[in-house]
Design brief:
Helix content is 44%, strand content 15%. By secondary structure, the chain is α/β, with parallel strands linked by helices. It folds into four domains: 150 residues, DNA polymerase beta, N-terminal domain-like (DNA polymerase, domain 1); 89 residues, Beta Polymerase, domain 2, CATH 3.30.460.10; 75 residues, 2-Layer Sandwich (Beta Polymerase, domain 3), CATH 3.30.210.10; 230 residues, TIM Barrel, CATH 3.20.20. The protein binds one DNA strand through helix 2, helix 4, helix 7, helix 9 and strand 6.
DNA sequence: GCCGTTTTCGGCCCGACTGTTTTCAGTCG
């Protein structure tokens, strides 16, 4: 699976080209990178089928470069660009205000290659001597440099979402604010978030902007204009505020939600129709034809409404034009949660508390799925403990009404693909999840074999966190997804969408691939205390980003149907 | 470098803000 690597190289090439002021070739490489990054197929498979040039934005030249990367692991063209300008691009670009042009200037004139060089030259006041630079630029670089060192960019959606809602509530308290919405990648529910985008309807832009730039969450003001301002928050994130009147709200909301790539597609459609789309509306010769609501904007472009989670330019615009968008699983569609832990292993709440919490969320059922034997670190249960826990579940089931606790386990798949609990005991369970917790670095075939042999055990119902990734922490292990999806269907095994904020595993792209291959999914929180049951929202969001419908997710079924259809006796 | 029910050549999304500029380039989203 070299998709990410190929996309990464193309983005770096685009950086180098942008340095030299080459506009459209830069765009071609960025387009190609986006196509490959979000591709629901393995680029190596596409290549071996000889279909690279059928992908959008990929022509003969870029196809050749993809082949070179797949065959040799590197790309000569890129290596040459690196030699020509050997700078640490990613580090320098992370400094707010520095872009490719400035980085080039700093390298040519002062030999700046990395953050240390940049700091030295700034402190010596060499930067202000350069054309277009002044003392304010130097000061800004120095401030932002510290920030770039401390913050490696994006944060997890699960942590930013509550914070953004808190800010939203605070702004909403102002009398002059008619409406305040969170837009940007948070609204699209992207798994990581770079900043917080806030959109406000008001007749008094100045007052709202003043509040925003001085509210209790704000650390410092980065930019402040009449319609747009940016602040750095105390939590280290940047937040943008944009202020609009009511009749421009819809077009502003579309524009400010993004993604940038989808916006570009929408604008192209507008141009074809002789119109212009910007944040102020859909215009014909400066006359606003639409703009009050998002629906109006999509409709006048001949599109049905596109849910924010789909707005990534991954085919949703074409689907909207054809009226073939998926009917996404809803945020209130789950009837239960099939993975959570209690004090019996590494969780911190009791079975009863978890059950009551699930009931409060409106669920009909939950499965208690504590760790088993070999996972000592997670307080894994042995046979005797499992039997004792089953008795406790029977007891709590009798005490509580309108909620059913299913008996479950999360068993460990060892390095040979074997499970750590005897089959006779597994057969007594309602729900058995199997997952990998060690030996991540085996090769692709071996990892795939391990998971498939677990699927082949008739007692295993679900493969939990199937790729083992932890966002910004640990890569997914290398799997042959075609084999996994095929085996999942043959063995009637459900793949999990683990809703834990740093897992979201399967990811949005893998969810879409799994669904295209015909698999069924379950959205589980993997909660280790009762508060974490609310992570379900993140799992649903990720599933929506993977184009999942209600029928694709087994825990949208009521209890009886769930048990009947999926043999969870 | 890619792409085409107006084009195989000539286009390629759009606007706000900042700093250093006398009219604009660079960055950001």
């Amino acid at each position: 699976m070299k998709n990410q690597k190929v996309a990464w190289i193309f983005n770096r090439i685009a950086d180098y080209l942008e340095m030299d002021g080459i506009d459209f070739r830069t765009k071609a490489y960025r387009n190609a990178a986006h196509t490959i990054e979000t591709l629901s197929l393995d680029i190596e498979d596409v290549r071996s089928e000889g279909r690279l040039q059928e992908l959008p934005g990929i022509g003969s030249k870029i196809a050749q470069k993809i082949e070179e990367i797949i065959d040799t692991g590197s790309l000569e063209y890129y290596e040459n660009l690196k030699k020509e300008t050997p700078v640490d691009f990613e580090a320098l670009l992370a400094v707010e205000g520095l872009g490719p042009k400035t980085i080039k200037l700093l390298y040519k004139e002062l030999g700046v290659k990395n953050l240390d060089d940049l700091e030295r030259e700034t402190k010596r006041h060499h930067i202000r001597r350069l054309r277009g630079m002044g003392d304010k630029t130097e000061k800004k670089i120095l401030e932002n440099l510290e920030f770039a060192r401390k913050n490696t960019g994006r944060r997890l959606l699960g942590y930013v979402l509550p914070q953004s809602r808190e800010i939203q509530e605070e702004i909403n308290k102002l009398d002059i604010v008619e409406r305040v919405e969170i837009a940007g990648s948070i609204r699209r529910r992207k798994e990581t978030v770079g900043d917080i985008d806030i959109l406000v309807i008001t007749q008094n832009p100045d007052e709202v902007t003043d509040f925003f730039t001085s509210m209790k969450f704000t650390e410092e003001v980065i930019a402040k204009g009449s319609s747009k301002s940016t602040v750095r928050l105390k939590n280290g994130l940047d937040a943008d505020l944009r202020v609009f009147p009511e009749d421009e709200f819809g077009s502003a909301f579309v524009y400010f939600t993004g993604s940038k790539e989808m916006n570009i597609e929408l604008r192209k459609i507008a141009i074809k129709k002789g119109l212009k789309l910007n944040e102020y509306g859909v215009l014909r010769d400066d006359e606003q034809l639409a703009g009050k609501t998002e629906e109006d904007v999509f409709n006048i472009l001949g599109l049905s409404y596109i849910e924010p989670e789909l707005r990534e330019n991954r085919g949703e615009v074409d689907a909207a034009a054809l009226g073939k968008l998926p009917d996404l699983v809803g945020y209130h569609d789950l009837k239960g949660d099939l993975q959570m832990h209690t004090k019996w292993s590494d969780g911190s709440s009791t079975i009863k508390i978890m059950a009551e919490s699930a009931k409060n969320l409106g669920y009909q059922y939950l499965a208690i799925t504590d760790h088993t034997g070999t996972l000592r670190i997670a307080g894994g249960m042995g046979d005797e403990q499992i039997k004792m826990q089953m008795k406790e579940i029977d007891q709590v089931n009798q005490e509580l009404e309108d909620i059913t606790i299913l008996k479950g386990l999360e068993v460990n798949i060892d390095s040979d693909g074997l499970l750590d609990i005897k089959n006779e005991l597994l057969a007594d369970m309602d729900v058995v999840l199997a997952s990998i917790h060690s030996g991540f670095r085996q090769d692709r075939e071996k990892m795939t074999d391990r998971i498939i042999s677990a699927m082949e055990n008739e007692n295993v119902d679900i493969i939990a966190h199937p790729t083992g990734r932890k966002i910004q922490e640990r890569r997914a292990y290398d799997l042959d997804f075609n084999r996994i999806y095929e085996a999942a269907q043959e063995t009637n095994t459900i793949l999990e969408v683990n809703a834990h904020p740093n897992r979201l595993d399967l990811s949005d792209i893998n969810i879409r691939r799994a669904l295209e291959a015909g698999c069924k999914l379950v959205i589980n929180t993997d909660a280790h205390k009762r508060e974490e049951l609310s992570f379900a929202e993140l799992g649903i969001a990720t599933s929506r980003r993977g184009w999942a419908e209600k029928k694709d997710i087994i825990n949208t079924l009521p209890l009886k149907k769930l048990l009947k259809n999926f043999n969870l006796n």
